[in-house]
Amino acid sequence: MSRARRWSGGLLLLALSLLAGEGMLQLLAWRVPAVDRVLTPVWAVPARIPDPLLGERGNPRWFDHDARGFRNPSAAEHADVVTLGDSQTYGVSANRSETWPSVLGERSGQTVYDMAFPGWGPGEAYLLLDSALALHPTVVVIGLYFGNDFFDVFTLGARVPEIRAFLPPRLDDAATGLERAAPLAASVRFLGAAGDTARPPAPGEGLDPRRVLSEHSKLYAVARAIRSLLTGEEGRPALLARDLDRALTEATDAERQFFSVYRGAEWRTLLTAPYRNRVLDDRDPRIRAGFEATPGLLARMDRECRDRGTRFVVVLLPTKESVFAPRVGDLAAHPALDSLVRNEARLREELIAALDSAGVSHLDALDALRRSSRQPYFEDADGHPNAVGHEVIARVVGERLTREAARPIK
Question: For the chain, what is the domain count?
């Protein structure tokens, strides 16, 4: 047999093998939605879809979501624990298996169903409570993040009457007028979706062969997934580089006004106090209105859970800046850090007093995160916990739930 014929035969066999493999993967993706989600390029499917009540919710077609659009392996019909919250509970910047709800489930042996989503707050959690209770959980846990949840309550209340009823009337006119004149969201968009937008860029437009393969070939999708696994996530913004020195090198002048650098003996990171303090400074009536509405929302959720024989626990999740504060020492050396830490400490004390008065069970993750033997946040400007931080939160939540289980529901 001539060399040319051997080459031709080999190429034909290779082509037939590739076609057979492509056909099998296409059939598998068609029959199994979870496989289709994994093999669909992340840039081709939006993680969020519009929702008439919540504004936005998770897209069930997103590779990491279940059929309801939440970040779980599957859409469970029953759960021992349901978690609600924002990106800190959803686990932006962490793998799904690393998030504190996932770690909590693994350690406790219970089914934990996560119904959190980036950009949501206590208001969205309140609106989702009936859906959470439909899973007949023993306990509902809400992660309340001091970094932006109070502003989120105000913005949701501005368009949803059911949430607006919790906003204090005396602040309504001032807060609404200020938001209409100068929307706060426009000034805090910097890093607002940190991690949520860190995805590989789409290939070129038009008839670019790479784009065609990326959109339609499942074999190409497998190769892309393997490459991503071996080389790490592509297209990550400079300030989310996971390396402090690289983030500093690539940061723009406009970005530098929003962060300061902390380098300690053990921990180091970029602190974003100038940005974060904008949505925690309750001298702004919008923040104050959202803050004052929050205890009422949580107390109502607690009562509804008790009426259904379900426990309700609030987990207070601090900002990265407050976790780092004792190590920083000279807060004045970092713009807005002293103000942020003071505002957060004062609001934490006020909120805890309100929860105690209403009899709402709660726990604070701040001290445990501060005492962590390993750094619980990334070195870059990301304010979300890393895998270590999620482990810490899962541990303190698990300890509280164990104690709660021994006490009767009143």
Answer: 1
